[in-house]
Design brief:
The chain is an alpha/beta fold. It contains 20 helices and five strands. Strands 3-2-1-4-5 form a five-stranded parallel β-sheet, sandwiched between helices. Helix 5 links the parallel strand 4 and strand 5. It binds flavin-adenine dinucleotide. Flavin-adenine dinucleotide binds next to helix 9, helix 11, helix 14 and helix 16. InterPro entries: Crypto/Photolyase_FAD-like_sf, Crypto/Photolyase_N_sf, Cryptochr/Photolyase_FAD-bd, Cryptochrome/DNA_photolyase_1, DNA_photolyase_1_CS_C, DNA_photolyase_N, Rossmann-like_a/b/a_fold. Keywords: Chromophore, FAD, Flavoprotein, Lyase.
């Protein structure tokens, strides 16, 4: 009896229990293993998957096909428009290849879960395996048996459960048949943008992880907030499409720091915490499906009257707000498909609080641009910034872009990298852009090539606090 491994957001052969299960099924039933990946352009468009992420996926599907060929497994890359067509094509594929069992990794997003449920209900022999988190969604609960709504107790419980388990990545399965010929390169039939500035492959991701743990993790706490430094791992593009698993990351931490889950002084503590944030947002997505449906986590957010000024939104998207730190960050996103975490928080706060644009507009724009686009982390980050989320930044805390600028890019080297118009400006002018008084005939613009601030900070802060007080209970 034959089995099928269906790859989705787990584009790897290492630490892939679903792949191992497919191989074991075929071995014990004297059958073959096949593998399949569906290219779904219309679904990706509906989900706003960025062209740069599609290109990154394409590169990894080709590398995956090569790695599978070495194991004697053929990967078919099938084009479907959307998840509905996937159902039809998968049923036909199963019949054509006499497949008795299908294995895949569980996914936390609602459309993906509905697709899988429909397939199982229609009789497809699909087994879903939890492998996108170290601890599966639903395993980290409070005393009442509910999902935590605050991160710190979630993280504490997460560590105590993880500490009782062996966190060991699953090995690459042994070859199941003779090595196959090198597969032909597959080209996805949809719009893509080059991701070549990023290395690709499981080996590359593992090397980045190892080098980060060997050389940088101890300085992560001190350096992670400074966008001019390479202070973070830059593993997010790989984690988002499953080229590396969070279990591989946590296991690598534990190999180096066996006390990481219990010792508060562990040098990897802060980085481990970020991986736990990733799990927190994924567990939330499963516990609260409305998060996948564009809803505020905090329902009081439904009462916010957003300004949603299109011209201001466009200036934000284009990196033309007149606030150098915001503009440098948005240009980094537009040019590279990635943005530093500190800046994601700063630009999201600016859009939702200074400009009072609905967080959903920003979430969507990020998704359309990010190489690491991930519904759980993106939604979590946006709702955290807007104050509507679970364990969010309080609505009355409004990042001051000028303070953020001087604190986290003191010599403006990051800003100047992306906003070259400002190369001759003084540090004081870069960090404190001036709003021209329109009533002053003698007022001079700082520089004609660069816009003046589109909103005045003090006024915007007070306006945000008033409008967002809709989030106040009682
Ligand atoms: P590191 O600092 O090295 O962290 C290691 C890993 O931990 C990351 O790769 C990521 O998988 C995870 N992680 C780190 N911080 C967070 C966090 N706050 N929430 C969830 N997971 C985290 N991350 C995405 O992967 N995809 C997104 O679409 C995304 N959108 C975001 C939107 C906003 C508004 C904000 C504030 C944050 C968003 N993040 C997102 C989280 C974070 O900014 C990125 O994960 C991080 O910048 C990636 O860089 P890194 O790999 O160097 O991270």
């Amino acid at each position: 009896m034959n089995s099928l491994m269906w790859f989705r957001q787990d584009l790897r052969v290492a630490d892939n229990p679903a792949l191992v299960a497919a191989c074991e099924f075929a071995s014990s039933n004297r059958g073959h293993v096949r593998a399949v990946y569906f290219v779904t352009p219309a679904q990706w468009a509906q989900h706003d998957v960025a062209p740069i992420q599609i290109d990154f996926i394409q590169r990894h599907v080709n590398l995956l096909a090569q790695a599978l060929a070495v194991l004697g497994i053929h990967l078919d890359v099938l084009h479907a428009q959307d998840f509905d067509e996937v159902q039809t094509l998968l049923a036909a594929y199963i019949a054509q290849h006499d497949i008795a069992a299908v294995y895949a990794a569980n996914e936390p997003e609602i459309n993906e879960r509905r697709r899988d449920r429909a397939l199982i209900d229609s009789g497809v022999p699909l087994t879903l395996i939890d492998q996108d988190c170290v601890l599966a969604a639903g395993q980290v609960k409070n005393l009442a048996g509910d999902m935590y709504k605050v991160f710190s107790p979630f993280a504490k419980k997460w560590k105590s459960i993880a500490g009782q388990r062996a966190i060991v990545p699953v090995a690459v399965p042994a070859p199941i048949a003779a090595v196959l010929a090198t597969p032909n390169e597959v080209v996805f039939n949809c719009y893509k943008m080059s991701s070549e500035q990023w290395p690709a492959g499981e080996g590359a991701a593992k090397r980045i992880l190892d080098q980060f743990l060997a050389n940088q993790v101890a300085d992560y706490q001190a350096e992670r907030d400074f966008p001019a430094l390479e202070g973070t791992s830059r593993l997010s593009p790989f984690l988002a499409i499953g080229v590396i698993s969070s279990r591989q990351c946590v296991a690598a931490i534990l190999a180096r720091y066996p006390q990481a889950l219990v010792e508060d002084t562990c040098p990897a503590k802060t980085w481990l915490n970020e991986l736990i944030w990733r799990e927190f947002y994924r567990h939330l997505l499963v516990a609260f499906p409305r998060l996948s449906m564009n809803h505020n986590f905090n329902e009081l957010g439904d009462g916010i009257v957003w300004r949603n000024n299109l011209a201001e939104f466009t200036a934000w998207c284009d990196g033309q707000t007149g606030y150098p730190i915001i503009d440098a960050a948005m240009r980094q996103l537009n040019q590279t498909g990635w943005m530093h975490n500190r800046l994601r928080m700063v630009v999201a706060s600016f859009l939702t609080k200074h400009l009072l644009v609905d967080w959903r507009w920003g979430e969507r724009y990020f998704r359309q641009k990010l190489i690491d686009g991930d519904l759980a982390a993106n939604n979590g980050g946006w709702q955290w910034s807007a104050g509507t989320g679970c364990d969010a930044q309080p609505y009355f805390r409004v990042f001051n872009p000028m303070t953020q600028s001087s604190k986290f890019d003191p010599d403006a080297s990051f800003i100047k990298r992306y906003v070259s118009e400002l190369s001759a400006w003084s540090l004081a002018d870069i960090h404190q852009p001036k709003t021209i008084n329109v009533n002053d005939l003698f007022a001079q613009r700082q520089d004609d090539r660069y816009p003046q601030p589109i909103v005045e900070h003090k006024m915007a802060r007070l306006r945000a606090i008033e409008v967002l007080s809709a989030l106040k209970r009682g």
